[in-house]
Amino acid sequence: MVFWEGYVSDEVMGTFAPIVVYWLYAGFYQLLPSLDKYRLHTKEEDKEKNLVPFGAVVKGVLLQQLVQAIVALFLLTTTSNTPEATVQPSIPKQVFQIITAMLVMDTWQYFVHRYMHQNKFLYRHIHSQHHRLVVPYAIGALYNHPLEGLLLDTVGGAISFLASGMTSRTAVTFFCFAVVKTVDDHCGLWLPGNIFHLFFQNNTAYHDIHHQLQGLKYNYSQPFFPLWDMLLGTYMPFTLVKRPEGGLEARPAKD
């Protein structure tokens, strides 16, 4: 029994809930008061280094989410059973399916992401759009070239869903969690008590390293675990250093 039962279908919820969660969580970070002592970059760096205006970022994210919604609604409705035949698996099985989906998504995104850096044409014409945000922030988490958004996120999400065998109802939990994790990785803040920083090595500072010049060929893993970076030699650990003017800086701990 879930709160939306009887109001909207699991398929509709699985399509639109992640979009709503994205804007709620990213909006929360956007509306936070100035927290300069927790910022990984100064506001001056934000203005100087980022190469795309905020309005264009919002439009880019909305375009990607439109494509994701169309694909997700089609996928969920064509793979689901009739409501009478849908039986939710046990909690342990759902946890196993979610972990499976996390590992599949990490695998897909690592290799596609890495190839987009290694292929000069793809980087110059497609992936570099995401790296125009040298100083990441929450609302820009899904700011990508439309083709990258389709290939990396939408197709990756579809493969994860199908490979795990989860139901549409379980997919609501998985995709909402994936969205929150992705937004948090791009928030640019190292807040005390953040559970993602406590339980995931692949976190805000880890991904911030990747957005900097010295880390472009490292820390490709996203959004959950740094497994493939560790296995394939692209893992760049970080140290957090207090800035003299206030705030924090994520510095590579690798020569």
Characterize the structure shown.
This is Fatty acid hydroxylase domain-containing protein. It is found in: Membrane. Belongs to the sterol desaturase family. InterPro entries: Fatty_acid_hydroxylase (IPR006694), Sterol_Desaturase_Related (IPR050307). The structure is a single chain. By secondary structure, the chain is mainly alpha-helical. It has one domain. It is built from ten helices and two strands; from the N terminus they run ααααααααααββ. Helix 3 runs parallel beside helix 6. It is globular. The N and C termini lie far apart (52 Å). The relative contact order is 0.17. The model has no long low-confidence stretch (mean pLDDT 92).
The gross shape turns out to be globular
Please give the share of residues in helix: 55-70%
| Biggest pleated-sheet summary | 2 strands, antiparallel
Q: Specify Rg, calculated over alpha carbons.
A: 18 Å
| Oligomeric description of these chains | single chain
